[in-house]
Design the sequence.
């Protein structure tokens, strides 16, 4: 762990154990959402589903990227991922994005997708609020993730005809325009 990096965050008035709990729950939600979105994407078929497929893929890969970008910060601050993946899924900070009972019902699919993104927007807003002006590195990372989660919400919301997102499309799936600078792995 980065001893002084943790110390300066504590000295700024942050309870690092509380922050670590939030980061772990956020990472758990990214990891489980990546898994569930895989199932949602493969079921996104037919006239209604085909158009959705690409943005589910964008959100799916970017959620994996969010997990990857969060992990080093958890260890720097003295935390660790749970040894058992079942435990990790249990502490995920957002509900399971289950495939709807009728997988051909794209409105039900969209409800699951948009709720998952709204939970993520709340999660990273909370982490930004907690770290703003105190833990610069976590703030910068959480803000980068928040930018992408807000875009995901807007895309799905647009599909629900709640109004235009104002966005076009990613050049290739899951390019993470904001988070990629925090990643060590190669991406798109
Ligand atoms: Fe995410």
Sequence:
């Amino acid at each position: 762990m980065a001893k002084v990096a943790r110390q300066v965050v504590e000295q700024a008035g942050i309870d690092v154990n509380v922050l670590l709990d939030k980061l772990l729950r956020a990472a758990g939600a990214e990891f489980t959402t990546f898994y569930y979105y895989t199932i949602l994407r493969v079921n996104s078929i037919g006239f209604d589903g085909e158009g959705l497929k690409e943005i589910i893929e964008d959100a799916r890969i970017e959620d994996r990227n969010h997990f990857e970008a969060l992990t080093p910060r958890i260890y720097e601050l003295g935390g660790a991922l749970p040894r058992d993946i079942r435990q990790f899924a249990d502490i995920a900070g957002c509900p399971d994005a289950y495939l709807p009972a009728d997988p051909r019902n794209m409105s039900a699919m969209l409800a699951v997708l948009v709720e998952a993104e709204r939970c993520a927007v709340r999660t990273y807003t909370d982490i930004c609020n907690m770290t703003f002006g105190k833990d610069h590195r976590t703030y910068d990372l959480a803000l980068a993730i928040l930018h992408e989660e807000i875009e995901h919400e807007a895309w799905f919301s647009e599909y629900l005809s709640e109004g235009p997102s104002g966005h076009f499309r990613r050049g290739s799936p899951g390019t993470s325009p904001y988070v990629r600078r925090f990643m060590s792995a190669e991406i798109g």
